[in-house]
Write a structure and sequence with these properties.
Structural class of chain A: alpha/beta
Largest sheet of chain A: 5 strands, parallel
Shape of chain A: globular
Number of domains of chain A: 2
Low-confidence stretches of chain A: none
CATH architecture of the largest domain in chain A: 3-Layer(aba) Sandwich
Oligomer: homotrimer
Helix content of chain A: 40-55%
Strand content of chain A: 5-15%
Number of helices of chain A: 15
CATH class of the largest domain in chain A: Alpha Beta
Distance between the termini of chain A: 23 Å
């Protein structure tokens, strides 16, 4: 049976994810990335076959959303539920945190019975990843000092640097499309900026994509108009990844050039990190006029690149490429006048984008499971052999 | 034992609710209505006897409240909990939905591990039911296209047309009062408008009541001052129901006339659908002045009918009628100066109104169970025979 | 084994907590206080040893927070989760309660499947405890009249009078520090006011502390500047407690005097109840100018006592005292310029304050368990013997 084969494959991999956080994909080895994909695939098949995937009898998954979220919120809740955890959201508006307490304190106070903490913090460039590490250090301190009985795993639900639950879902989708990870070698994968009538979208989706896909020998092209640069350290890292994996990484300022013969395209808007830096400072200063001015300037700048739209013409340049988007997309003529993608292209590829999104709950479930279970193949085999069903029939 | 008899009775009924949504009671056959009542009664007795009613080992119940709610919110949460589902609320303020994404997309994104979606959408006349059907179509699309492993059931927690979890609870209460459904034949059941110092209350409670009760041979009277009309199609439908069931349906503009010899009275305020239409348009246009003007006009209009209060004098006209209200009521001298019901009458009938409300969690549990379980009598018998207790002792 | 000994100890105690609320510690006998501590200690060890502590297969824990909360919110959620209950928060902003319905009605409407209701209501002096009793009376009414199948236990998560989940956690910490409750006899325990740059903090932490610790033969000193009086009835009660337990209780207006040779110090800010009375009236009248004026007056008054800071100098006066704080503290130089405690003292004692806080989820779990289980030692022994683990391995 397929699930059993995947469990065997998992056993062959060398991973040390037990007790570890998941903050950046490039902090994980290739075997650990592969393990996460395999466990997600196994869980996906188990869920489809109505097999119970609970490894907890009780416990809490804590979510901290410092930015709005629908799909990641539901994905995290789904993952916790699938494993047997209840979700408790830390709503900073209803808490006493404004009071001036330290991250170390808050993190410990919410963790006495917490097994996982999922954090989205992508609004402030230079800060989101730092905050997640502060929380991780705080619960490590609490655990080492026997304040906490268990050390909750910190999962990055999007930071200023990476969005690993998204990029890992994207990788799962690409793996599924090409049959296996080896087949990604040499494929042309394009992460492209696209026009949007909004501003200030996080960079971390694009950064996550290039930081991860360059590790599998692909021919990765990052395309954006001049000025829409990503964090230099992620660019550096992607170059090195490509070198080490026998792949390729380059930046293009021409969307058509990038799309030519592409096997995968992911056209999505973002702000440049220089804009995000200004925005962060204005937000901290609560400078509403400054923010309005910045928004206007950025929208004007964006408006020069209204032709960076993924449409039939551009798709025709590709090698019948897989169209990807983390959703929701700005769809020309549907959710806005001009957007990231034409209604036509979006509609044609809707199954793929929804299917891509369906991986996120499974990826998060896999991340938690691997950080909690020393011997995952043993536990997965037990779940399979239990013959316990999720819904009675 | 009583539970076993009810399970046997359930087995006799011809119902095809498996995999179906529950949006309008008149989309269900009489046997399906009866099945829902029976399962609610069985679950009620099981809960009372500390018997576990879980049919899910994991899974999510998603709630979408586009209007405030206490009792329906808690009833839905209770129902999900009783069956083994965790509740995840889609708070549209904390999500990215404003972003302009389609209902099709949102519905699928929240449903990867959802087994049921409960929706309240009663503010905008002509829209609530439509939205619920859009969600239902969307998850049907997702399920058929293998985006979703399971097809979540959509439950109407109040729309602009019907409020089936309320009307079914009312029917359960009436059945309990008269011993069985057959005894409802010929009983005079009055759904009456009542004065309230507020405006814009949904019509769906009244519509749900007349649309359901007319199917059981009752002598249903809808009473309201001129101008407080309900949706014409529901009036039409109620007339036909009455004809088919051997009952009666008429509209009266005189509360006293309606109350005369009534066996059941449900006096409750609502706006006319013409007002609701104006209100909807003003809300969409965000016309605050227009809304204030409309409210003043309506309150002035309401004020002409301040004598439409259910008080001792009116109750004395009845045949010792059962007083019903979906709660909370506007109680004269308690929650307002003049209201739907006198403090005296409300206080006298408090047990019945609370008992009426106690059916709602059971009705929702039954609706979910019947949509999820092909052979409900088998599962209910197993739950009964398991001898597993909800609270250890 | 340690857990088994504690269960045996529990068996010796005479407690009648089954079916009872937990509103004020002084409504509980000394044996009941001891039972709560023992059960909390047993649950703590079970949780540490990965042993399942569920006594419910399904059911709801309802929380009502009429004031912001992080740690109590998470403690309540953790306690419910540890016992097998799902949490449903009654968010009064999203409900129809403003509508004018009675406490009796709301309490019953949310309780059809509720096993426990936790309430924080500490903003309005003279009202919080009353509200909790109204809720308790309401569900008692519902249960006696067979509207509710089960009678949810009401747990005080902080009222205007007492904060029992805090004071019981404090007692657990003190017991742990001194080895057993007997050793508290004769120890000098100081509940001291401390300076804070905010105003209007509840009195109930201080009241809870002196009302509870005076029952164990300690030498309890309440210290505060003139004018920062607590509720007279709690002072009276503390005096009587001290007399009955062979301990001592006195009020000092000198922080240094209080700290001299102290074994435990708990320096924490509060407002006087006279200020809280004015504030309550202004809040009810929604008198924003009056509130601002009151705040300014109070902060000016506070500012006279800026030297009421717990710092190294003051700690040096003590008998190497245990420093306690319910958290979050106002830390000089960290969360504010001048506060309740110097950064130095707070940092040195961080382990103890975090450890103190870790008792709260366990104390709440114990409170619920004792109100739900007639024979707790039997159930705890069964949980221990089940060899069921919280997290698979």
């Amino acid at each position: 049976m397929d699930i059993k084969n995947k469990i065997k494959e998992l056993e062959q991999l060398n991973q040390k994810m037990f007790g570890k956080d998941f903050l950046l994909t490039w902090e994980k080895s290739v075997d650990e990335i592969k393990s996460t994909l395999l466990v997600a695939e196994i869980l996906n098949k188990m869920h489809k076959n109505n097999i119970v995937t609970k490894i907890f009898e009780s416990g809490l998954g804590v979510s901290i959303f410092r930015d709005n979220s629908t799909r990641t919120r539901f994905s995290f809740a789904s993952a916790c539920n699938a494993l047997g955890l209840d979700v408790q959201d830390l709503d900073e508006n209803k808490s006493q945190i404004a009071h001036g307490e330290t991250v170390r304190e808050t993190a410990n106070m919410i963790s006495f019975m917490a097994d996982v903490i999922g954090i989205r913090d992508d609004l402030y460039i230079g800060e989101g990843d730092k905050y997640q590490r502060q929380v991780a250090d705080a619960v490590q301190f609490g655990f080492e000092n026997k304040i906490l009985h268990q050390r909750p795993t910190v999962i990055n639900l999007q930071s200023d640097i990476d969005h690993p639950t998204q990029s890992m879902s994207d990788l799962a989708k690409i793996k599924d499309r090409f049959g296996n990870l080896e087949n990604i070698k040499g494929k042309k994968i394009v992460m492209s900026w696209a026009y949007s009538p909004s501003y200030g979208k996080p960079l971390s989706v694009a950064q996550g994509m290039i930081g991860l896909l360059t590790r599998f020998g692909a021919d990765v092209v990052l395309a954006h108009p001049k000025g829409y640069d990503l964090l230099p350290e992620v660019i550096e890292l992607s170059k090195n990844n490509a070198k080490n994996s026998g792949g390729n990484f380059r930046i293009s300022n021409d969307m058509n050039d990038a799309f030519k013969n592409a096997d995968v395209v992911c056209p999505k808007s973002w702000a440049s990190f220089k804009v995000m830096e200004k925005r962060r400072d204005l937000l901290h200063a609560n400078d509403q006029n400054g923010l309005q001015k910045l928004e206007q300037d950025c929208l004007l700048e964006n408006a020069q690149f209204i032709d960076w739209e993924c449409n039939s013409k551009k798709m025709a340049l590709t090698n019948n490429a897989l169209y990807m988007h983390p959703l929701p997309a700005d769809i020309s003529g549907l959710s806005c006048k001009y957007g990231e993608v034409s209604n036509n292209v979006f509609e044609k590829n809707i199954w793929d984008t929804y299917n891509q999104a369906s991986w996120k709950p499974m990826i998060i479930t896999a991340m938690i499971l691997l950080s909690k279970i020393k011997n995952p193949s043993k536990i997965l085999r037990e779940l399979l052999d239990n013959e316990k069903y999720r819904l009675s029939s």
